[in-house]
Amino acid sequence: MKIERTSRLDPATGIGFADTPQALSLIHKPDCAAVLWRRQPTPCFQAWLDALPPEQLPRTRTVLRPSDVRVKLEQVCDGQGTPEGPERDTLIDDAAALADIFAGLMGVTWVRLRLEAISTNACRRFHVDMLTARLICTYRGTGTQIGVSSDGAEPKQITTVATGAPIVLRGADWGTGHTLLHRSPPIEGSGEVRLVLVLDPVADPEQVQ
């Protein structure tokens, strides 16, 4: 028997659960702190990405229009030696689509894009980002960890976002006092190498530092 899932907002945590990209608009509901798009990568794509040597993982930091993401990432993959093929195309197309979706959600025409290969603890403290909102998608490795905390301390219950599932998180500049915190998973010394896409809205690219 197939169980149908519907997009919804959990009032206890402020987390919305989306089954379509359109449902990411839950982020605009007053009591929403984050929206998780419940999707899974195809096994062949994930196997390809997980098997890549870390030095072939694409990485970049740039500010650009969503329409330019595909060309930029093709150049990055070429420079990094990421093997050509349908799986590489899938990665590039997905990052470009997420940039377009996120820009539409935030009403901006530019985004700051970071695609990083991470083998350290990165940002291991639970926190709220000092911006309006952020989209994070972990393509390889352990996903972002989230949890509710009323006093800013480490959450007692921690949830790890699934690999390949994008999450849109409200930041401090949204102007809400939600208590959902997040962090990068502590992986230093484990030998794990994550590949993480981070998108931030940019209103004026000339003012980006």
Topology:
Layout: E1 8-10, E2 15-18, E3 34-37, H1 43-51, E4 60-64, H2 69-80, H3 86-106, E5 110-118, E6 133-140, E7 145-148, E8 159-160, E9 167-170, E10 180-183, E11 194-202
InterPro entries: DUF1826 (IPR014955)
Protein name: DUF1826 domain-containing protein
Pfam family, one: DUF1826
Describe the structure.
By secondary structure, the chain is α+β, with helices and mostly antiparallel strands. 20% of the residues lie in helices and 27% in strands. It has helices spanning 43-51, 69-80, 86-106, and strands at 8-10, 15-18, 34-37, 60-64, 110-118, 133-140, 145-148, 159-160, 167-170, 180-183, 194-202. The strands form two sheets. Strands 1-2-3-9-6-11-5-4 form an eight-stranded mixed beta sheet. A three-stranded antiparallel beta sheet has the order 8-7-10, with no helix packed on it. Strand 1 and strand 2 (15-18) form a beta hairpin. Helix 1 packs across helix 3 (86-106) and helix 2 runs antiparallel to helix 3. The termini are far apart. The model has no long low-confidence stretch (mean pLDDT 92).
What is shown here, in short?
This protein has 209 residues and is of the alpha+beta class. The protein is 20% helix and 27% strand.
Q: Would you report the number of β strands?
A: 11
Question: What overall geometry do the principal axes of the alpha carbons give?
Answer: globular
Low-confidence parts lasting 5 or more residues at pLDDT below 50? none
Provide the domain count: 1
- Proportion of β residues? 25-35%
CATH class call: Mainly Beta
Organism: Meridianimarinicoccus aquatilis
Pfam family, one: DUF1826
InterPro entries: DUF1826
Protein name: DUF1826 domain-containing protein
